[in-house]
Amino acid sequence: MKKTRKTPETLRSWRWYGAQDLRAFGHRSRTAQMGYTRSDYAGKPVIAIINTWSDINPCHSHFRQRAEEVKRGIWQAGGFPVEMPAMSLSEPFQKPTTMLYRNLLAMETEELLRSYPADGVVLMGGCDKTTPALLMGAISMNLPAIFMPAGPMLRGDYKGQPLGSGSDTWKYWAELRAGNISEADWQDVEDGIARSPGHCMTMGTASTMTSTVEAMGLTLPGASSIPAPDSRHAQMAALTGKRIVEMVWEDLLPSDILTPASYDNGVTTALALSGSTNAIVHMVALARRSGFDFGIDRYDELAQRTPVLANIRPSGKYLMEDFFYAGGLRALLRQLGDLLDTAQLTVNGRPLGENIAAAEVWNADVIRSRANPLVASDGLAVLRGNLAPDGAVIKPPAAAPELLVHTGRAVVFEDYNDMAARIDDPALEVDATSVLVLRNAGPQGAPGMPEWGQLPIPKKLLEAGVRDMVRLSDARMSGTSYGACVLHIAPESAVGGPLALVRNGDLIALDVPARTLELVISDAEMDRRRAAWVPPAPKFERGYGALYLKHVSQADKGCDFDFLEPVGAAPIVADSTAGATRGAVARDGEPEIH
Ligand code: FES
Fold this sequence. Notes:
By secondary structure, the protein is of the alpha/beta class. It contains 21 helices and 16 strands. Helix 4 crosses helix 10 and helix 5 packs parallel to helix 6. The two termini are 35 Å apart. The structure holds FE2/S2 (inorganic) cluster. FE2/S2 (inorganic) cluster binds next to loops.
């Protein structure tokens, strides 16, 4: 349905600025206090810039400057920019895990937009959880929105060799523990692995999610592949600012752009990139915010038809800087051809197909064709069985192929501290065929479902040359990690999932082609163990942590809060000021202006 173009009087911010009453006087006089005159804002779209800059987030260290470039674009297009700082979710520093706080940033984003005079929003994020968090909030608020990705950092450098975030950390850490490199070598890795602003430049969660949301139409075309320090990144920031102003006049909303087909496009893209396993949790959460019942099995269905075309670490050879020079995401999307629904609308008002029609591949080893994929299909697999009734996830291309069908005896760690204390104990009864099991590492158990799922290989096995083993947990794994790691086991052990019932020496059978994960014990024995199970004490008694424990969903439901999701398909209702909005977000209604 064609929309009526907005007028100044129908802007949401008009409620704050346009009236001739005491309240509007207050808003105008306080805007004058900041040095603005009426000509700066009267009748113009107010654009919120939600900026996740922080002194403690190295991935966003260029965001102060980028916010100025976004503002430049907004001013040029006739908008009024208002920068709003929000929680940064700095992956390297925030403990126990940024995942614990993803939903808090989502809430902050939604409530900033609801409570202030925003007509549209530029979302500035990129470091892992910031992308889903900002978009979860923006989807629920459903104002015109563009995501401005931070961009990957430059390649790392170690003795002339490129280093990749995370992946090479795990690799050289293993070599240090095995005695193959010196402390001085390790120091060189430390100094050279992160040498510019920007998010991790391997295909970790950051690159996966920024690319995925670009494919869903939520960024300007090509935005996610540009390295953070590149001048084209600054140009993209200014163009993002220009475009959001026009989107407000057009009343182009996230609900106009996000459809089941655009979610399929996003997941197909994540799979073609051999993206992070974390994306599955975030995509389920985002889709449920949109009111779509998008389950993990859809992810598996798409994996079975999608080839891996991006030759990027940890599954491949190159880094995001190489990917950009090879043509970037647009070139990869064009290679996907009929696996994408190219009729889907994007933030520039054009269908995806138009945005990628002229994209070319400049290096056919970095961006493969469908005739020459890195992996033919199954970039990710969803497993089920008596150990994971609600599902578990593995990334087959990141695992040693011989471990994809494997039966071994369990070596169980009760929690992270137990694992850290015993994993390198020479007396630990473990061999290369064992299955390492970590429990109490899920959304409730850890809490926050940290990236503990790449359990370290025991030192004595590392020294014997072992580099991969089957590992099981209810945790997540960094997108830059690799190995035969079965993750996101649901229900998690802390709520009584079968992972809680595994004992040392039990046989565990993994069969990735058959999509199964089984604990080889009888149903009667499983029932006996379940009856004797005692739940762990809650980790938080007060504050945000207590709220989190009370409301967080399991991994297969996206780990969102139950009270933030539109449960089931939400009806579309008309909102005279915000255009068509979904029922579950229309509770925003008319803000009361004080
Ligand atoms: Fe920020 Fe990896 S630490 S993206």
